[in-house]
Write a structure and sequence with these properties.
The protein is of the alpha+beta class and 116 residues long. Helices cover 52% and strands 12% of the residues. Helix 1 runs antiparallel to helix 2.
Length: 116
């Protein structure tokens, strides 16, 4: 999908144009990872975080992208959030932006308060 492509490449104005044209910031795609494994629920936010595209991450968050939405590797069954992939790839500022996102922080507070 075009929004995924532009997000991964860090093309801020192209991402902005896609969003203005109605592309959903949270749409998940099924892709083939570098190792040849099939992965699903890969969001534009995940790809931007993976490549350290901080300004694109901020734009997608402002447009309503959910930072807690993980992608799933269908070969291993593992899932990783955008914040986790940013950290693993050494994109600390991107990781911090994702972890400090107000929507995500509110969700974590809600989970801590809910009875188990």
């Amino acid at each position: 999908p075009r929004l995924h492509w532009h997000a991964a490449r860090g093309e801020l104005e192209a991402v902005r144009a896609c969003l203005q044209q109605g592309d959903a910031p949270d749409v998940g795609a099924r892709l083939v990872a570098a190792a040849g494994h099939l992965v699903e629920r890969v969001s534009p936010l995940y790809l931007a975080a993976q490549h350290g595209r901080l300004e694109v991450v901020r734009l997608l968050l402002a447009a309503g992208a959910r930072p807690e939405s993980p992608m799933v590797n269908l070969h291993t069954g593992c899932s990783h959030s955008p914040a986790a992939v940013a950290l693993v790839n050494g994109h600390i500022r991107t990781y911090v932006a994702l972890r400090l996102d107000p929507v995500l922080r509110a969700e974590r507070r809600r989970r801590r308060r809910s009875p188990k």
